[in-house]
Amino acid sequence: MSIKSLLSAHTGRIYIYLATADIGRQFLQDAENEGFMFGDGVKPTQREADSIFAIKDDMTINYVGFVGRIAYQAADRIGNKPLIKIDYQDVLNNQKGK
To answer: pTM of the entire structure?
Structure first.
């Protein structure tokens, strides 16, 4: 499953959890390969991986700050949108299983 396909498969705010630095680097490389950028136009691999990123319909990604991290742990919605929590290791495992 591609990162783009996650956008089409889910409605709401999508947070991607990256359990390790290696998974984080893989996510950033995959995001860049699929055409994602940070909102300021920087390519994903030009920035450091973190444990949670948000992906958006406009093909941008962004870091998740303090309040977003609390939401990731405790909430099912952000505003009026559902909060979709995806562990990128599961995405990678599904790709390998094909």
So the answer is: 0.92
Residue 98 lies in a domain: no
Residue 73 lies in a domain: yes
pLDDT at 90: 95
- For the chain, strand residue ranges (E) read 13-17, 37-38, 52-55, 60-63, 77-78, 81-87
Give the closest residue to 29 by CA, choosing from 58, 6, 57, 61. 61
Number of domains in the chain: 1
Q: Is 49 domain-assigned?
A: yes
98 has pLDDT over 70 = no
- Strand-by-strand arrangement of the 52-55 sheet: 37-38, 60-63, 52-55, 13-17, 81-87, 77-78
Q: Which residue segment(s) compose the domain that 69 sits in?
A: 3-90
